[in-house]
Amino acid sequence: ELCTIWQEQDIQRVTMRVGIHQGVAVVGNFGSNQRSDYTAIGPTVNLASRIETSCAQQKVYISSEVAQHLQAGECIEVGDFKMKGIEEPMKLYMVINET
Question: What gap in Å lies between CA 48 and CA 65, rounded to an integer?
Fold first, then answer.
């Protein structure tokens, strides 16, 4: 709805992409007394970020670890992707949007 309103005002459409992986992460407030942020860190978070970087606009890509928890027809394989800092290409899946 917001994009429709903005389009009428000649404001560029907002686009996004999402990368999802599952695993252990450290979550909390990080920083100092002067400045801190609530965030998540760790290899799982880094891999989710790499998946997001490989993702097409307006799509949701997931790792095979996440895909194995979905029902048949909820995602499709999109291919093997080389991720920064990871030796072997990684198979990614796209979540099917039925709406």
Answer: 11
